[in-house]
Design goal:
alpha+beta, 5-stranded antiparallel sheet, rod-shaped
Amino acid sequence: MSLAFAQSGAAPEGPGPLVQFFPLILIFIVFYFLLIRPQQQKSKAHRTMLGELKRNDEVVTVGGLYGRIMEIGEKVVTLELAQNVRIRVERSKIEALAEEGGNRKTSGDKKSGKDK
């Protein structure tokens, strides 16, 4: 005896391929705007800052050293940390320009107007 299987109409299909990839596309868009794009902007601003460095600018290195630029080469910068104390640093290791007086202002430095 042979078995016969009854076939119903067309089998129900799942959602289309575009609908299946929509969550993946949405996640990529979110990652782009929250992670990738801000990092690219930060990197571009850092490259611009490095390109605009000039002699006598006060800078902070990645290691946290504050110094004044004495000589600028294409890849190496000579910083003066104190009188007659000079170091050579790779240009890309300069993190930022130092604030006036060597202090960086943070949001915790605000004083209230009610001093008694």
